[in-house]
Structure formats: structure tokens, C-alpha cells
């Protein structure tokens, strides 16, 4: 019967230590998989340089991270949510309902979104119009909206080779998708005049509602298999391109820069994407990256404020720091962010 | 008409001459055997392809490129006040160590008389970003060495490592900002001088996970500890609960509709997809019972739920295979029912129970899906646990979750490590299954 005793005592120890270890001593972070590499670089350096344990960084997507962030205040909830987009009004409301009222928003820098294809295939010089014509559900032909008839890139733009259109775009749960829709498809929609046609056809009571409906119609992608949603990570997109040499994929700049032996990048409106061209704003497809800190946890979870300050410090997030070396575009207004973090300024200004 | 049929002579059959029907039957049997051999051949071929793939892609992870340098630990950089106060020394962050590393590699290159157009910063680019951390750790641990020159073995950057392993080739680095062909020239020269060398990499087996900026430093050791602690929880819970449940069901419970329903449900539970247990674990253990997220304790509890049916089913089968005459004999000489079970039936069924448990554990060891939901996937396995309580409760990952995480990351060096991790995981699984087979062969009794 000694085995039973052993088991019972093991369980007892586990139960006792579970209550004893309730005081969490490491920062917990979750959210966007785009921010994950940066957050893990910072977490690692943080663990090395401070006497606090290395923070735990989970991924799962911006929305999932913010949802967990808004679950409430307490040691069983995460301290920091990474996001590749701004927090939404709806999420702020959900947060407030769960008691998470004071949120510190921290912008860490910018991330470029690039279009890349197989290194041995054709190179492309895109404009947003090309992408709209290639992927939109409906395009304008002779003043009438018709189902997208384009089959090859040559149909889209006579300057392109007659390569079949095959695009791998991020699925709708990704923050990248939203940027792709806003900065590329919608821009192309407006440039081709399809937006005005859709606006005229849009139903709605007010101008605003009509505008919204037209925008929504604009970003509807074709569903005949030419555009494939990738719900996984960029590695999946890369695998798809490796097996289908005609494929063009949407990637983050940092991912492309780590796989330059397999991918070639396309220019957008004549600009080659790089940390420099994104920082100056010449390259159009980029977005800010954020993390959100629960103010109620500062002082409760050891190292939380130090982590946030370390993240935005010049030697980490500055233009010579490890983050920019990995592919993050440094924020020109980093000093302001540093001041805001130091002052623990919350969103809405009620610090 | 019936008379006519009766008068027809019966077909003559000879033992030496096969009839058409027999020939057809024999041919059908031959065909079936061929199908069977074909099926086995396809299975073996798949296995061979899989093993070849894993071994060819994963063995690289067990080797790593190192650069040996003599580093002068400058007092002017590391301890400006010169008082050897640990608090002051700790204020120098890893960023403060890069000039020292730059000096060290520059001194080495000029000392060897290698001609290179590179600046010191580009030379230091050959080293892993882990080098500064390694150096700082050493200085903090041995502050009395400041001012001395110490020999260090630093990890090389993942591109340099890839170059020596043939993963990075000169033709493909035109757009790569992490390495240039001048740097590769320097690497060639340093390899010749014996400064850069590839050796077996214990850090991969024993080390902790590393961030995306330094894939060369990543190891699977800490997540192996996570898996170990989860298996301890599974063993401590699933074995006693499973065995107790099956003994009661098999030996004591009356045969009625209630036990029938329980039996059906246990079989159903064994077929429930593991992700369902993950959701259950999130809802019950984390959200309701407030156990810490990412903790191997919670992972172990979830995997216990998953392993229980496997253990119950195999335990019941091995209890059933103990002949009733043994129970009857025990009862006949006056043993109580419980004595009969614990003194006679259970020892005879033990090999079967152990085999079932080991196979259940092996299954749990390779499970990833439920761990996704309880926060064990991500950049987590970076703090080696100190002691049992921390091992159970502080955040950790598990081997399959670590492999999944590596396979997602951008740098190709992580991909190699994912395959290396698969080799280690497979070694564990094969060992466990072999032990199960050996136990069964040695101790199982047949009647």
C-alpha cells in the first residue's frame, strides 16, 4: 500500500504548493503572432539583464490576446496583450465590464507587409490597382460591375507575364489581413473607380452607411480559388509557394528578410520594401504594432513596468536595437512613448 | 424433366487435375496474398521515407558551430568604478558587452594575419547574439576575473552555422542582410585557422528555448523537463484512478444497465479528440479552479483525462484474462473478495496493466492539441525549473509543443531544430514502447 501513500502525499504536496505559488513572479504576455518574435527577443534580453525571471510570451492572434487581456484583473489573467492593430472600442468596453479600466497603450514601431514570390519565378512591380483587379470579387469593365474575369497577371496589367494568378493571403483572423484590405485592395478599388460604382449601387439610409457598404463590397475577395486564405502562419504561406511556383504570398517584412534565399520581394508603387522605406513612409503597406499593459498589475506582478520600459528603451526598440535588426521599423516618436510608459499614462488620459 | 437431371453423369473430379473452380479460388488467394504484401510494402516504404526525412533534416540540429575567442574583460567597460561591486557590474547590460566582443574578434583576426575588408562590427556579426549574454553571465558569476583575458567558446550566428552545414550557400545570399560574402570569406579563413569549428551540441538537448533573434542558442531541454513533470502528474493520477476504477468495475460491480452505460462511456471517452480535453481543461482547471496557466500541472491534469480511458480499458482486459479458477481457489481457501483480488488477481494482471500505462503515457507524451489551449505553446520554455513545486507550477512547454512552435518561426535554423526535436521525441516514444513490449514478453503469463 506504500504506492497509494506515495501518490496521496504527492497530490497533497501539489495541492499545497499550488496555493503557495499563487503569487506569480513572471510577467505573462499573449497575443499577436506578428509581435511574438519581437516580444520574445525583448523577453529574453529582459531575463538576461534583470533579476526578474524571463517573461512568458504566448501567441494566438491579436483578437485572442486582447480577449484574454480583458478577462479581468488578477494573477490568473495576463498582464500584457500584444496586438498588430489598435484595440477596438468594443474590446475596451468588454475590458471595462470585466474591471480592466486602466489600460496603457504602447506603440513599439511599424511592421511592413510585403508581397513575395518564388525566387526563381517572375519578378513583379505592383500597384494597389493590380491587386484589386487580380483578387476582387467584382471589377469594373466598360463602366459595369462584373464578376472578376482575370485569369493571368497579363490580364491585369499588360506589362506582366502571362502567369496564372494565385495569391496566398492571410486569413480573416489575422491582423495582417485588415491592413492588406485597407492599404491595398481598398486603395486599388478607389483608384479603378469601382468604389464610386459600388457607392452608387450601395444600399443604406445615410451616406455613412452607404460608404461603409461600398467599402465592404470593395474588399470582398473572389472565391473561385484564385485567392487562398491562409489561416496558419507565414511558414504555411511559404510552403504553399514552394509547392506552387506561380503563387504570390503576403508576408511580414521580418519573415521575408529571414528567407531571402527562397523568396523574392515585389515592389509596391515602385518602392522596394525595407525598414528605411517604411520608416520614411514611402512604402505604403505598413502598420503600427502595439502592446497593452494592465495598469492594475503594475506593482503587483514584479517586473511588469520594467519590462514595458525596457521594451521601448532606445537600446531595444531604437533604430540600432535588436528589434530593428530583426525587421521592426523603429518608431520616430519613440521618446514620446517612453515618457508615456514612464508616467503610466492610460488610454483616454485618465491616468 | 426431373428424371432427365438425375440421369446426367456427375462431373468427374480428379485430385491430380484441378477444376476451373479450384483454379479460380487458388488464383483469388494468390491475389489476396499479393495485395497483403503490397500493403505491407507501401507501409514500409512510407516508414522508410519518413525516417529518412527526419534523420536527414534533423541530425543537423545536434551539431553546432562554435567560435573560440580570447576575450579581454576590460575594467573600463565592465566596472567603471573599479570597486567590484556586483550591483554596479549588473548595471552593464548585454548591450554594453558588444564592444568587448568586437575587440576580441578583431584582435583574433589581425593576430592570425587574415586580410579582410570587414569592419569590427561586421566581424562580430559572425557571432551569435547569445555571446553577450554568455559573457555577462560569466562576469556576474566571476567578478574577480574582470581585467583578465579569458578564453570563451561562443556560438556562431545561425547563417554561419548554416554555411558550414551546407544550408546556406553563397549563390543565395545576395539579398540576405544577415550575412555577406565577405563575411563568408572570413569564415572560410577562420575555419582553416581552427577558430571556427563544428562540434556536438549538448545545448540543444539540455538547453532552453531562445528567441527568434538567436535560433542557434535554442534547445529542447527545458521543455523536456515540462514533459517529464506532466508525465509524473499523469502517472500519479491516471494509474491509481484507472486501476481502482477497473478493479471495481471488473471484480465488484454488479452487471446491470448502470455499469453497461459506464462501460460504453469509457469506450467513447477513449475516442474523444484530444482538443476537447484541452477546452475542458481551460474551462475547469484554469477558469474555474484558478490553477496557473501554462503550468505542467494543468497540462498533466488534462492529459490524465485523456489517458484514463486507455488505462482503464487495458487494465480491465488484463484482469479479465486472469482465469476464474485462481479467484475461485483463493475464495475457496477462505480469502475475502478483496484479498483474492489484491493478493492473486492483481499481481498476475500487473504486466498487462503496466504495458497499458506505458502506452497511454507514450500517447500523452506526443500530444500537442490540448496544450495549445492551456497556454503551453509560445516563447515559454526559457527558465529551467528549480525543484519539484516550480517544475509543476511555473510556466513551461512540452516537447511536441516546442517542436510545433519552432516549425512556425521564420528563421530556417528553427526548422532544422524542429526536426531535431522530432528525433528526440521519437527516441523517447520508441524506448517507452519497447519497454512495454519487453515487460509484456517477460512477465505476461498465459493459461
Strand and helix layout:
The complex is a heterodimer of chains A (351) and B (447).
Chain A: H1 2-20, E1 28-31, H2 36-49, E2 56-58, H3 62-69, E3 80-83, H4 89-97, E4 103-118, E5 125-126, H5 128-135, E6 138-141, E7 144-147, H6 153-156, E8 167-170, H7 175-192, H8 194-201, H9 207-218, E9 227-230, H10 234-243, E10 248-252, H11 253-258, E11 263-265, E12 267-268, H12 275-279, E13 286-294, H13 304-312, H14 314-317, H15 322-326, E14 329-330, H16 334-342
Parallel strand pairs in A: 1-2, 1-3, 5-12, 8-9, 8-10
Antiparallel strand pairs in A: 3-13, 4-10, 4-11, 4-13, 4-14, 6-7
Helix pairs in contact in A: 5-7, 8-9, 13-16
Chain B: H1 2-7, H2 20-58, E1 63-72, H3 75-78, H4 86-91, H5 98-111, H6 120-124, H7 130-141, E2 149-155, H8 158-165, H9 181-192, E3 196-200, H10 202-206, H11 221-252, H12 257-270, H13 274-288, H14 296-320, H15 324-332, H16 337-365, H17 369-373, E4 378-379, H18 387-393, H19 399-408, H20 412-443
Antiparallel strand pairs in B: 1-2, 1-3
Helix pairs in contact in B: 2-20, 11-14, 11-16, 12-14, 13-14, 14-16, 15-16, 16-20, 19-20
Amino acid at each position: 500500500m506504500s504506492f497509494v501513500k506515495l501518490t496521496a502525499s504527492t497530490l497533497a504536496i501539489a495541492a499545497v504548493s499550488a496555493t503557495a505559488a499563487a503569487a506569480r513572479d513572471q510577467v505573462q504576455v499573449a497575443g499577436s503572432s506578428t509581435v511574438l518574435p519581437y516580444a520574445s527577443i525583448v523577453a529574453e534580453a529582459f531575463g538576461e539583464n534583470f533579476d526578474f525571471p524571463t517573461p512568458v510570451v504566448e501567441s494566438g492572434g491579436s483578437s485572442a490576446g486582447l480577449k484574454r487581456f480583458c478577462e479581468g484583473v488578477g494573477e490568473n489573467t495576463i498582464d500584457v496583450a500584444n496586438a498588430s492593430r489598435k484595440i477596438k472600442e468594443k474590446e475596451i468596453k468588454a475590458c471595462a465590464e470585466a474591471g480592466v479600466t486602466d489600460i496603457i497603450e504602447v506603440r513599439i514601431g511599424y511592421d511592413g507587409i510585403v508581397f513575395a514570390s518564388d525566387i526563381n519565378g517572375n519578378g513583379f512591380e505592383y500597384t494597389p490597382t493590380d491587386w484589386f483587379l487580380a483578387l476582387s470579387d467584382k471589377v469594373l469593365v466598360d463602366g459595369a460591375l462584373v464578376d472578376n474575369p482575370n485569369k493571368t497577371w497579363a490580364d491585369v496589367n499588360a506589362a506582366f507575364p502571362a502567369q496564372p494568378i494565385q495569391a496566398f493571403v492571410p486569413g480573416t483572423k489575422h491582423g495582417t489581413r485588415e491592413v492588406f484590405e485597407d492599404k491595398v485592395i481598398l486603395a486599388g478599388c478607389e483608384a479603378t473607380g469601382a468604389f464610386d460604382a459600388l457607392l452608387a449601387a450601395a444600399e443604406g439610409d445615410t451616406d455613412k452607411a452607404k460608404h461603409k457598404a461600398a467599402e465592404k463590397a470593395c474588399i470582398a475577395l473572389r472565391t473561385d480559388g484564385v485567392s487562398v486564405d491562409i489561416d496558419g502562419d507565414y511558414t504555411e504561406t511559404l510552403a504553399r509557394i514552394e509547392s506552387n511556383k506561380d503563387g504570390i504570398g503576403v508576408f511580414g517584412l521580418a519573415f521575408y528578410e529571414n528567407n531571402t534565399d527562397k523568396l523574392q520581394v515585389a515592389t509596391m508603387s515602385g518602392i522596394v520594401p525595407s525598414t528605411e522605406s517604411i520608416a520614411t513612409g514611402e512604402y505604403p503597406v505598413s502598420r503600427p504594432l502595439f502592446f497593452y499593459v494592465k495598469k492594475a498589475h503594475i506593482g503587483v506582478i514584479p517586473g511588469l513596468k520594467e519590462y514595458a520600459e525596457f521594451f521601448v528603451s532606445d537600446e531595444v526598440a531604437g533604430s540600432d536595437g535588436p528589434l530593428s535588426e530583426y525587421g521592426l521599423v523603429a518608431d520616430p516618436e519613440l521618446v514620446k512613448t517612453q515618457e508615456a510608459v514612464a508616467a503610466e499614462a492610460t488610454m483616454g488620459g485618465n491616468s | 424433366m426431373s428424371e432427365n437431371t438425375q440421369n446426367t453423369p456427375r462431373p468427374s473430379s480428379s485430385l491430380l487435375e484441378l477444376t476451373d473452380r479450384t483454379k479460380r479460388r487458388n488464383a483469388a488467394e494468390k491475389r489476396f496474398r499479393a495485395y497483403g504484401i503490397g500493403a505491407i510494402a507501401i507501409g514500409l516504404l512510407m516508414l522508410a521515407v519518413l525516417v529518412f526525412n527526419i534523420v536527414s533534416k534533423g541530425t543537423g540540429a545536434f551539431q553546432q558551430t562554435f567560435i573560440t575567442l580570447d576575450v579581454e574583460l576590460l575594467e573600463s567597460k565592465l566596472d567603471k568604478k573599479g570597486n567590484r561591486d556586483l550591483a554596479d557590474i549588473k548595471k552593464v547590460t548585454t548591450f554594453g558587452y558588444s564592444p568587448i566582443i568586437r575587440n576580441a574578434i578583431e584582435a583574433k583576426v589581425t593576430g592570425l594575419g587574415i586580410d579582410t575588408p570587414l569592419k569590427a562590427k561586421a566581424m562580430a556579426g559572425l557571432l551569435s547574439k547569445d555571446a553577450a549574454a554568455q559573457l555577462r553571465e560569466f562576469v556576474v558569476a566571476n567578478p574577480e576575473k574582470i581585467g583578465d583575458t579569458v578564453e570563451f567558446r561562443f556560438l556562431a550566428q545561425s547563417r554561419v552555422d548554416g554555411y558550414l552545414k551546407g544550408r546556406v550557400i553563397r549563390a543565395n545570399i545576395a539579398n540576405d542582410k544577415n550575412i555577406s560574402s565577405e563575411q563568408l570569406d572570413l569564415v572560410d579563413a577562420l575555419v582553416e585557422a581552427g577558430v571556427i569549428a563544428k562540434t556536438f551540441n549538448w545545448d540543444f538537448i539540455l538547453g532552453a528555448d531562445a528567441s527568434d533573434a538567436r535560433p542557434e542558442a535554442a534547445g529542447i531541454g527545458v521543455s523536456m523537463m515540462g514533459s517529464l513533470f506532466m508525465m509524473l502528474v499523469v502517472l500519479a493520477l491516471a494509474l491509481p484512478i484507472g486501476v481502482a476504477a477497473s478493479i471495481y468495475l471488473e471484480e465488484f460491480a454488479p452487471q446491470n444497465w448502470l455499469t453497461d452505460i459506464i462501460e460504453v462511456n469509457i469506450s467513447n471517452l477513449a475516442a474523444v479528440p484530444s482538443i476537447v480535453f484541452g477546452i475542458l481543461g481551460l474551462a475547469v482547471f484554469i477558469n474555474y479552479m484558478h490553477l496557473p496557466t501554462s503550468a505542467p500541472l494543468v497540462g498533466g491534469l488534462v492529459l490524465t483525462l485523456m489517458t484514463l480511458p486507455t488505462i482503464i480499458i487495458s487494465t480491465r482486459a488484463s484482469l479479465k484474462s486472469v482465469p476464474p479458477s485462481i479467484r475461485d481457489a483463493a475464495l475457496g481457501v477462505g480469502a475475502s473478495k478483496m484479498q483474492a483480488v489484491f493478493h492473486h488477481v492483481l499481481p498476475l494482471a500487473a504486466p498487462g496493466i503496466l504495458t497499458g500505462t506505458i502506452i497511454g503515457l507514450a500517447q500523452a507524451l506526443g500530444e500537442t492539441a490540448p496544450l495549445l489551449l492551456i497556454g503551453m505553446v509560445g516563447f515559454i520554455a526559457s527558465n529551467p525549473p528549480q525543484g519539484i513545486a516550480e517544475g509543476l507550477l511555473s510556466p513551461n512547454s512540452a516537447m511536441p509543443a516546442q517542436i510545433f512552435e519552432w516549425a512556425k518561426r521564420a528563421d530556417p535554423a528553427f526548422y532544422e531544430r524542429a526536426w531535431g526535436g522530432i528525433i528526440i521525441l521519437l527516441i523517447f516514444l520508441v524506448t517507452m514502447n519497447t519497454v512495454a513490449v519487453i515487460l509484456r514478453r517477460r512477465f505476461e503469463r498465459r493459461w
